[in-house]
Amino acid sequence: MATWSRLRKENPYYAHLGDAALAVLRELAEQAQVQAEEAREQAERQLEEMMRQLEQGDAENARRQGVAADRVLEDAERALIRSAIRRNGGSVQAAAEALGLSRSAMYRRLEKLGLKPDELQ
After folding, report:
1. Which residues lie below 8 Å from residue 21, measured CB to CB, with a gap of 6+?
2. How many Cα atoms sit within 13 Å of 82 on the Cβ side?
3. DSSP secondary structure string, 78-112?
4. What is the pTM of this model?
5. Using CB atoms within 10 A of its CB, is residue 64 exposed (0-12), middle (13-18) or buried (19+)?
6. How many domains does the chain have?
7. Backbone CA torsion sign across 29, 88, 82, 74
8. For the segment 39-68, what is each residue's pLDDT rounded down to a tens digit?
C-alpha cells in the first residue's frame, strides 16, 4: 500500500489534505481492512460448516450455506473496491493498480458486483 506522504505527492486529490484529513482516511482504510477480514473469516466458517454438512449427507443445507458464503465474499469484495476507489480520489484506474488488478479486470468486477464507478466517488 502506498504511503500517505507519497499519496499526497502523487495524487492531486490528496495534495491539499492536511494531516487530520489523512488520519481520517487512514482510519477508514483500516476499518475497511478489518471489515474485509471479518467477512473472510465468516466465509471460512460457513465453508467449514458446509463441508461438515456435505460429509453428513445434508447436501441441500450445504448448498444454502455455500450461497450465503458467496454473498459474504461478494460483500467483502464490494467494501474493498469501494474503499480503494474512494482512497484514490474516485480513480478506478488508480484503485485497480492499488489492488493489483488491471483496469479491465476492475471494470469486470464492478459490473459483476453491480457497482457503478461514478456512484463510488
Report:
1. none
2. 18
3. HHHHHHHHHHTTT-HHHHHHHHT--HHHHHHHHHH
4. 0.48
5. middle
6. 1
7. negative
8. 878 877 877 777 676 667 666 666 666 666
